[in-house]
Amino acid sequence: MKESDIRFGKLLILVNGLIPLALLIWDKSQNKLGANPQNFIILTTGMMTLIFLILTLAVTPLRKITGWNWLLQFRRMLGLFAFFYGSFHFLCFFSLDRAFSVSSTLSEMVKRKYLIIGSIALVSMIPLAITSTNRMIKRLGGKRWRALHRLAYVAATAGVIHYYMQVKADVRQPLVFAAALAILLGYRIWNFFLNRRPADVPVTAKK
Amino acid sequence: MSDPKRNPPDEITSPQVYFNRRNFIRAGILAASAVATGVAYRELNPIGTSTKKKIETAAISGIQTNSIAATNNDSGFFVNEEQTSYEKITHYNNFYEFSTDKEEVAEAAANFKTDGWKVSVEGLVQKTKVFDLDDILKIAPPEERVYRMRCVEGWSMVIPWVGFSLSKLLDAVQPLSSAKYVAFETLLDPMRMPGQKSAVLDWPYVEGLRMDEAMHPLTILASGIYGHALPPQDGAPIRLVVPWKYGFKGIKSIVRIKLIPAQPRTTWSDYAPNEYGFYANVNPHVDHPRWSQATEQRIGEFGRRPTLMFNGYEEQVGHLYAGMDLRKNF
User: Best of B35, B45, B90 to disrupt the A interface by mutation (most A CBs within 10 Å)?
Assistant: First the structure.
């Protein structure tokens, strides 16, 4: 893929990734977020976080299956979008739900399991965002960088659990995310065992 | 002669045109993808585009301006707080019989017909009777009651109901002394209530009250809001309202009321007994296992307000639970 195509691809992701935010702001300005706008904003930004986490985790399996190595070029941007929406989601909770009260935010966060798990998801994305630059990749070295960025699995898993825990009874939507995540993580586990060369596999326990 | 392997110069697209076309195509792709993303967002969040039709229901005649409320503010019949708008009361509903999405119940329930509605009052009573809706509404004159409504999910409204005390109906059918509880049942008809086709809850929806709770004057059978008959999404044609309990106790579209000797099973408590109790009294000190009940989002307000004990009706109903451990009997 040409350099200019990649740049265009990134522009595509940038524009499309911002559209949900733009529509959210537009609907808010038109007073069209329903009876409980606070709730709607928090829910929607959370969903966007999960969608981008799933898209980020879909890059590697898709690349391996299709052989389209250029897909890798877009992964950073997808991941950063997940972090962006996740941070925004938290800010909305802090401002709209907790009315900017640090103490009530903190006390609520330690008391509620779903908030602890949500915090794990968000916090685990911070080092990923920080080390997303080319320079950081070089500084860490590919191997260490890849190991660190497995935290994305933690973020996505915790994010889906965080969503599931707040639903009263109709768990269909969180289960869709869970299913997508299971496929993406399942693929990696499957690959891991498939790629273990026979030499790596101990034939017997004897030495 | 020109080299046959090469295109004549006039057939080669000039770089300028080539790049223009490329840019043109790219702009097209960008625009198309943006539209597709926008449409997908709208499909998943129809809220921003849904036009909220005002639901026209018949005005209820002969509503009594309540004399007790006028003379005695302690009745709890008339909460002096800003009333939630009609539009919000009718477009933010928990009514899983139609949809699990609160914003979509109104549309899903729009064609729900209640013609020929009957309510069977039965069990441990002297006078078992199947009432036509009109007859049950004649049991007592309709009164306006402005109550807080606190949902177990952590939001609340102030709703001007039209209804009458359930005790009036119970008095009319003469309960036997062996009647200790009242059990209520919603219509079971998956054709008319499409949400019942999915097994998200165990249908039909059932609820219950202890006899003294059922006889309390604050407990009403409501048939209207804002002076008009209930629209389908709010529980037409007749529903229960128990203002000091979480909203899910207020069973909608009632077809059966049965007086019984023992505590009945109730839908949400069956679904998750550790999360939803039989009593379900609003209590800021007893949290839902997964979220806090200390505060609530009053629909239409910014920020959260503290939740009141028994939803602000402690003075009127606190005595019903004297000596009970409300942590255990949540």
Answer: B45
pLDDT exceeding 70 applies to what percent of chain B? 92
Across the interface, of A35, A97, A113, the residue whose CB is closest to B299 is A35
Q: Is the pTM of this model over 0.80?
A: yes
The string of DSSP codes covering A116-183 is HHHHHHHHHHHHHHHTTSHHHHHHH-HHHHHHHTTHHHHHHHHHHHHHHTT-SS--HHHHHHHHHHHH
Task: State how far the Cα of B201 lies from the Cα of A161, in Å rounded to an integer.
Answer: 21
Residues 76-135 of B with CB under 8 A from A: 87-88, 91-92, 96, 100, 102-103
Work out how many CB contacts closer than 8 A connect A with B. 84
Evaluate the omega torsion of the peptide bond into residue B237 and state whether it is cis, within 30 degrees of 0.
yes
More confident residue, B68 or B276: B276
Average pLDDT estimate for B151-159: 96
Rounded to a whole number, what is the distance in angstroms from the first to the last CA of chain A?
Answer: 49
Residue B267: C-alpha distances to residues B132, B171, B251, B254 (Å)? 26, 26, 10, 14
Is B29 within 8 Å of A12 when comparing Cβ atoms? Answer: yes
Chain A CA closest to residue B34:
A16
User: What pLDDT was estimated at residue B3?
Assistant: 54
